[in-house]
Write a structure and sequence with these properties.
The chain is mostly helical and 140 residues long. It has helices at 14-35, 40-68, 73-95, 102-135.
Length: 140
């Protein structure tokens, strides 16, 4: 599975984009290790590594939204909680299995990769656009 940051994911907000690049790099490393047959312990370590950065990124993104008075903050936070729940479910899946199976990788694709890419294209772009408009009212 190809997991990479590309032009379709650019929000034009430097902070958000740089953090998305790091988050997607961590997802790529996680997926690659699963597809290469990494054992259960390695997969759990990689998932923890991903979850750690996810918490950091979501906190930073939510703080940014608070700072600019973004009106969709409550809904955005709820989406972040949904993603964190997805990660917890993947952790439970790993705990109950011998390691990262094909079914597990399919769940990662659906509940991490696809979910995040759609979230960036919809929710995070809206935040970046709101920030741009509020910081550049003369450009309207």
């Amino acid at each position: 599975m190809t997991v990479e940051f590309d032009d379709n994911l650019i929000t034009k907000n430097e902070l958000i984009d740089s953090q998305h690049k790091e988050l997607i790099d961590r997802i790529k490393k996680f997926v690659d290790s699963c597809e290469e047959g990494a054992g259960k312990v390695k997969a759990i370590q990689m998932l923890d590594y991903l979850a750690e950065y996810t918490d950091f990124h979501f906190s930073a993104e939510e703080k940014l939204q608070e700072d600019v008075g973004y009106p969709g903050l409550k809904e955005h936070k709820a989406k972040h909680e949904e993603f964190k729940k997805n990660l917890k479910e993947l952790e439970a899946f790993l705990d109950e299995s011998e390691g990262p199976t094909d079914a597990f990788v399919d769940q990662v694709k659906k509940n991490v990769v696809d979910w995040l890419f759609q979230h960036i294209k919809a929710f995070d772009r809206s935040v970046a656009e709101y920030i741009f408009i509020t910081e550049n009212p003369d450009r309207l």
